Amino acid sequence: MSSSSHSERASLADALSSGISAISQAASTSELRSVMATLTGKKGAVAAVKSQLGRLDNIEERKALGVLVNEAVAALESAAESKFRELKRAEFSTQISAEKVDMTELALSAQASQRRGRMHLVTQATERLEDVFVGLGFQIAEGPEVETDFYNFEALNMPPSHPARSMWDTLFIESDVEGSVVLRTHTSPVQIRVMQEWPPPIYAVMPGRVFRKETPDATHMPVFHQIEGLVIDRGITFADLAGTIESFTKAFFGDGFTSRLRPSYFPFTEPSAEFDIRRPDGSWIELGGCGMVHPHVLRAGGLDPEEWSGFAFGFGIDRMAKERHGVNDLRDMYSDDIRFTEQFS
Ligand code: DAH
């Protein structure tokens, strides 16, 4: 083994142990985020070792060191993950005790007269989203929560027994024709209703409640909220979609945030993508789906695909509010405990 490989191994081991100790010393989740950004960033110690890899001329040594680098990164990430959970828990309970209400009768009656109500986190988020989209030139539309199979699936390019229907665990309403009435599983059916009712061009967002056959846990609820976007005009391209997502990202999250699109599949768009938001510290939030409106969907909305084109997008509001406020468990958001709501104004 050459001396150069030895020295790389040594500096990797150093980077790893000083990284682990920096992680364990982080005093808050935001400090931990910046520690990780420094460690695994372009200028970090791991990246420095990585950049030396190419200089080793023995292929076996290069491979072996490559494996060690990957292991070091994985070790740092898993240390950071458990530290993050620990800090988050601590921060949450500090918050809760800081906001604790004295539940004695006297204190309650004295405070009740002064206490102000708060809007639910999801309501707050929805209103901010609406403000931002109105600022970008969008109108707001709403549709029914009890939908027909036609709007929820068929008009969205999912004929009966289309396999993509299983992407949504559907709750059904009793009706004469079994399976023809559902609780909408997403806000996408409102796209069709808007296309049928509004003459194009259309620039609309459609927030609302959606329902899925889901057991509640920390990240899932059977009832949650989405916001749908629809743009229909002449000559709309994928570049308009990407640009709109990016403008929205900056307007809603702030200038330090950017967005990216990843190829994906939805029956109602072609091509389809998922979009993620990049935080200033380099971490990513997976937000939602989007794509160019499928010609079958335009036709179901009564529009001629030769004349009109457009894009659509949709994402969950609850998860976004959860991310934004560092809520650990979605179920807390629906606990109806005023001490929870009062923490967020
Ligand atoms: N309706 C999709 C869902 O609930 C989200 C979605 C994906 C909406 C792509 C769209 C879109 O408008 O173009 O999973």
From TrEMBL:
CC per GO annotation: cytoplasm
E.C. numbers: 6.1.1.20
Principal subcellular localization: cytoplasm
Domain Aminoacyl-transfer RNA synthetases class-II family profile: 129-321
Keywords for this protein: Aminoacyl-tRNA synthetase, ATP-binding, Cytoplasm, Ligase, Magnesium, Metal-binding, Nucleotide-binding, Protein biosynthesis
Signal peptide range in chain numbering: none
A biological process from GO: phenylalanyl-tRNA aminoacylation
Catalytic activity: tRNA(Phe) + L-phenylalanine + ATP = L-phenylalanyl-tRNA(Phe) + AMP + diphosphate + H(+)
First-tier enzyme category under EC: ligase
Cofactor dependency: Mg(2+)
One Gene Ontology molecular-function label: metal ion binding
Subcellular location: Cytoplasm
Protein family per UniProt: Belongs to the class-II aminoacyl-tRNA synthetase family. Phe-tRNA synthetase alpha subunit type 1 subfamily.
Subunit organization: Tetramer of two alpha and two beta subunits.
Name this polypeptide is given: Phenylalanine--tRNA ligase alpha subunit
Taxonomic placement: unclassified sequences, metagenomes, ecological metagenomes
